[in-house]
Amino acid sequence: MSRQPSRLATPAAKRLSLADVSSKGSGLPNRYILHGVEKIGKTSFAAYAPSPIFIETRGENGLETLIDAGRLPEIPHFPEVQTWSELLSCLDTLTKDEHKYRTVVIDTINGAERLCHEEVCRRDFNNDWGEHGFTSYQKGYDVSLADWRQMLSMLDTLRETRKMSILCLCHTRVKTFRNPEGADYDRWSPDMNDKTWGLTHKWADAVVFVNFETFVDQKDPKRKGKASDNQQRIMFTERHAAYDAGNRFGLPTEILLGNNGQEAWNAFRNALTEARKTTQPAPAGEKASV
Q1: How would DSSP label each residue in 159-188?
Q2: Parallel, antiparallel, or unpaired: how do β-strands 165-177 and 206-217 relate?
Q3: How far is CA 220 from CA 145, 173, 214, 226, in A?
Q4: Domains along the chain?
Q5: Can you say whether the dihedral through the CA atoms of 276, 279, 281, 283 is positive or negative?
Q6: Angle between helix 139-162 and 194-203 (nearest 10)
Q7: How would you write 215-243 as a 3-class SS string?
Q8: The pLDDT of residue 69 is above 80
Q9: Considering only CA atoms, which of 46, 50, 49, 173 is closest in space to residue 107?
Q10: First to last CA, the chain
Q11: Which of 27, 30, 28 is nearest to 166 (CA)?
Q12: pLDDT tens across 80-99, in order?
């Protein structure tokens, strides 16, 4: 009797030749992560991305509130997802079903991380969050990375299949940075586990941080300044000691975002367009969408 091949057998590797070498880019839409302080306008910004559809995680209902208040037009969105499997189901639906959406917005990605951890705790640790379960030697966070990679892979498949941009919103927090070159210091970082964030940061094409900048009136340099009423929302695009950011597009280090979501998105889009003009032009037919 012949032995049946194992289902886990590794498929024969294709031998690559010089004919497989390419000098072109992918031509795919971009993957963005925006983190910022509370009520800075993350949802309003994303609402003006090209043909967006929102996936809201449990407890993140800011989009509906803004629509009800007349601050935003009606924006397509899935019902608030309650579980990890519901989140993955949304991505699967957008990948397989015909539609005209061009941007998927995950509001928020730290909310998605919580759903992932809950699923892993239920499946692998019998719903035990204690020292003998999920948090034992940080095992739960390590196990969750495989599930998180699956979600990032599904987002990439959606990006490739439907040519959709990916925009992930994230809450931020002040966290102590362990500085290997000197004293530790506090900085703004996405409100996620370090291991999950490490994977996500590498995956994204751009990580941007949004905050208010308050101007100080200081007529007498010998006295403490007084904060003025003039505040501006600013997007920061490059890594800084005070915040986590970075991009692959050559964006200016700071982008003024204006007074509303429409102005904010337009400012970001225009900065991205200008950045492309100063870099090597894409080959004909390889222009990527915003």
Answers
A1: HHHH--EEEEEEEEEEEEE--TTS--EEEE
A2: unpaired
A3: 54, 34, 18, 10
A4: 30-277 (3.40.50)
A5: negative
A6: 20
A7: EEECCCCCCCCEEEEEEEEEEECCCECCE
A8: yes
A9: 46
A10: 58
A11: 30
A12: 999 999 999 999 999 999 99
In this structure, are strands 246-247 and 206-217 parallel, antiparallel, or unpaired? antiparallel
Phi, psi (rounded to 5 degrees) for 194? -60, -40
* CB of 286 closer than 8 Å to CB of 25: yes
DSSP 93-156: HHHHS-----EEEEE-HHHHHHHHHHHHHHHHSTT--STTTTTGGGHHHHHHHHHHHHHHHHHH
265 phi and psi, to 5 degrees? -65, -40
- Size of the chain in residues: 290
In angstroms, the CA 286 to CA 269 distance is 18
**Residue pointed to by tokens 């407890």:** 59
d(CA 147, CA 120): 8
Q: Is residue 146 scored above 60 in pLDDT?
A: yes
- For 107, list phi and psi in degrees, rounded to 5: -125, 90
- When comparing pLDDT for 280 and 134, which is higher? 134
- The whole-model pTM stands at 0.83
